[in-house]
Amino acid sequence: MVRVPESLPARMYLLAYDLKRRRMPYTGGRLGYVLRGAALAELYLDGRLVEERQGPRPGTPGDDPYGLVAQISASRPRSWHYWVRKDSRAMVRRVRDELAAGGWIRVRERRMLGLFTARQVEVKDPRVVKTLWGGASSALQGRPVAHVNSYDAAAVALAAAGELNTVLPRPERRRHRRRISELSARTGPAAGAVRRVVRADQAAGGA
């Protein structure tokens, strides 16, 4: 059996990887929203965040690996999409660095035009991505939503919300629209917040 990362943000990062082209097609922005959404969804599914007045509030005490509960605790009440957007680019760097430190990916730096540094990401074991993709794919099948693994359900919901074509191309999102909606409801408010932020960026011409 192929071992996969435990955290939902780490899984979403690997799912976003393009195995055919052997590169990470997303560098910030949209990927950051998905990873922040994944962290929020993980906390919500584990009961460490609850919804109150259409925003997250601390729930059952527990691990806070990315410091989101601490941020939310120290803030006035804010919406889910506020927390999806906040520090989203820093989230990409943090998850990437954690995966590199854990041996899941290799990151190489290259000088581009002699002016700036670009980072090239390579997944060390493609079977990890294929395993994660298989879990997400199975979540789209006819099995009752209540019986789908919660992280697989979240992976589909977040990938659809973030329009990650490496996971769910647009035709697949259209074909499985109803199922995705059901999986999103199972995941909690974070996926819907990711969708709103992505579409707001698109409307503003920033996506």
From TrEMBL:
Keywords associated with the record: Golgi apparatus, Lipid-binding, Membrane
Annotated localization: Golgi apparatus membrane
Keyword Membrane: yes
Family matches, as Pfam families: GPP34
Alphabetized InterPro entries for the sequence: GPP34-like, GPP34-like_sf
Membrane topology: Peripheral membrane protein
Gene3D superfamilies: yeast vps74-n-term truncation variant domain like
Name recorded for this polypeptide: GPP34 family phosphoprotein
Lineage of the organism: Bacteria, Bacillati, Actinomycetota, Actinomycetes, Streptosporangiales
